[in-house]
Amino acid sequence: MKKIFLAILLLTGPGFAALHAQQAPTDLQQLVNQSFEHYKQIKALQTQQRIAADQTDLTKTQRMPQVHGDVSYMHLYPAPKLDFGGAAFQPFPSENVNVGVSGRQLLLDFGKSGSAIARSQAQQNLLSMQTDEAKEQLAFQVAAVYLNIAYLRNNIDVQDANIKLLEETEKIVQQRLKNGDAIDLELLNTQVKLENYRNRKIEYRNQLEKQVANMQYLTGSPDQSGIRADFSWPAAPQQMLVDTAALAENAAIKTSLEKERVAEMELKSVKRDFTPSLYLDAGTGVKNGYLPDVNTPKWNYNAGVSLAIPIYNGKRNKLQESIAAKQVEAAKWNTAGVKDNVVKEIAQQNSDIQSNRERLKTADVLLRQADRAVQLAQSRYKNGVITYLDLQNAQTSLLEAQLSKIQYQYQLSISSLELLHLNGNQFWR
């Protein structure tokens, strides 16, 4: 009995390290890193990142020369001819042949292509941050399942300990029944209670199997038999203060700020869309049709510059600029909302931690008292000093104290884990 009690106390040892200085269990770190390699949504985001990089390279091609070739043949009938006193002059050939290469190079666009490239790079950076945020969410999801598994296994251990205790009580009742000191109802009550404990253990095992399946889904690892936790990690801080540094490391806030930057890049790009573009045009090749001998193909070339000036597009640009400006405003409001939510979550988790810490102090005292009460009740029941109901009440109080202790530990760990998440802590590294 004392060994069981000491094992439970090991799960409730006092003292918590600082939030930022904690070292996560090695097996949890391994599971998180496995999830990064296994989880399909992460792979999809990584593929999207590569697509975004290609999109950026594609945008940069706007500054590259555009070269294409032309090959054409055309038969002209009737071919025009001029008659000069018996001498015929044909200004256009009947058979027209043209083989050439032409190209265009952007010389100046007053920042239009630069803005487009900056916008594409900002979108690429945003996708990278979203991937990191998804990884962080996955990591804390794995950690939560890890704690769930540990919590259920600890509950099963408590049930096993109490089943063993009831089996000992059953033997005591049977012996007293033989001696005529007990009645059949006491034995029947013990057996009913014992079956209830066994059924509760089955329910815990069912929940445990579901959590193990969830962990396998997240990490691809079928074996979680080694997961055991004494809930010393994550250690609860006294209080997490809301400051600029804490908010700056939050993944959701960083992603929201990057969305602001993308919206601002979009606005700049839209403003540049209505600027002129200066091009260098050149070409060379072989074609016929040149006087005086229009049928003989000749080498030719051309070179020059052209300036494309937007004049009117039905207020399209102004409307796009107005939409982009509103998107910037919406992004800023979204960031403010995300920050407010983080502040609220920190306050709530601080409250939960304080509450569960106080409950743990009480639960520790109740557990010691309940354990001592069961020992005294067993001894006195054997000697016929107390009734079976007194023994049953003592045993029920012990079970409730054990389960409450583990429940408060679990809740404290979950709240502390959420604080790590809000603080942007990357415990898997």
Automatic annotation (TrEMBL):
Signal peptide stretch: 1-17
Keyword vocabulary terms for this entry: Cell outer membrane, Coiled coil, Membrane, Signal, Transmembrane, Transmembrane beta strand, Transport
Record SUPFAM superfamilies: Outer membrane efflux proteins (OEP)
Annotated InterPro entries: OMP_efflux (IPR003423), TolC-like (IPR051906)
Keyword Signal among record annotations: yes
Coiled coil: 187-214
Pfam family, one: OEP
Subcellular localization(s) per the UniProt record: Cell outer membrane
Organism domain of life: Bacteria
Family: Belongs to the outer membrane factor (OMF) (TC 1.B.17) family.
Protein name, UniProt field: TolC family protein
Originating organism: Chitinophaga horti
